[in-house]
Amino acid sequence: MFGWDPQYRDVRWAEDRLTRSAGNVVYKASQKRWFEDKVGAMVAEDIRAVVFDLDGVLADSEGLHILAWEEIAREYRLDEGRMPLHDWIGYPDTEIVKDVVREHGLSVSPEDLLKHKRRIFRRLIAKELKPIPGSVEALSGLDSILLGLATSSSRSEAELMLQILGVKDRFHTIVTGNDVKRSKPEPDSYLLTVGRLGVPPEYCVAIEDSTAGVQSARQAGLVVLAVTNSLPADRLRAAHEVFASTAEAVGWIEARLRRTETPS
After folding, report:
1. d(Cα 41, Cα 163) in Å, to the nearest integer?
2. Domains in the chain, CATH or no CATH each
3. Which string of DSSP letters, residue by residue, matches 125-149?
4. pLDDT digit string (tens) for 112-164?
5. Which residues, 6 or more positions from 66, have their beta carbon under 8 angstroms from its beta carbon?
6. Using CA atoms, how far apart are residues 13 and 148, in angstroms rounded to an integer?
7. Identified catalytic residue from 10, 46, 53, 169
8. pTM for this entry
9. Is 53 designated active site?
């Protein structure tokens, strides 16, 4: 066991340290095997925190993002065949709007398109947002450890969704797309979250539903559980484990927490 270095609270410092220690943020094959073996042993004995994604893990909102983009496409008469809506799952709107404006030659600025898309999305979630089945209930099984949230959504969208779901107060820290310069699939969101929690990343478990989210958490050094709420399992193979639902992923964590509580 070792103490958490407070310098990890700085995202750039944390990423630099991760890069130097591994040789590359994306681990080489031999290093990757060592990392997984080491983390597997740690996870069996000592999970100290769980970090959740929001869209598609707790909030059933990925479909609402798609509906918002479909409304944008109709309004601007865009070719939806050139809009890979499902491939955008997990990526920040701040980057998507740049691609849409460029690829479709729109006269509107990315900033204005982003504001418009967010207005549509907020209207949709205010009327239609529901939790991922079993996800809110599953949180009650993790009362004994620290919980964090790492989302690419904006602060205003994230807080509205958490308010609707009634779970905002369950998290010890919440990191949104407004809090980092580089959102998922870069590791910044997770590095900042675990830094605020004060727990080394190898003692943290992330629950994700997208390829970008899985990549982000893996690069930050967390154990990653993927759930097939939004994408099929074959798109999530980079995760350490893949589950059919958020509740099943939480159940995996709970089983390991009970193992540590059982006297040997």
Report:
1. 36
2. 6-60+131-261 (3.40.50.1000), 62-128 (1.10.150)
3. HHHH--BPTTHHHHHGGGTTSEEEE
4. 999 999 999 999 999 999 999 999 999 999 999 999 999 999 999 999 999 99
5. 85, 86
6. 20
7. 53
8. 0.79
9. yes
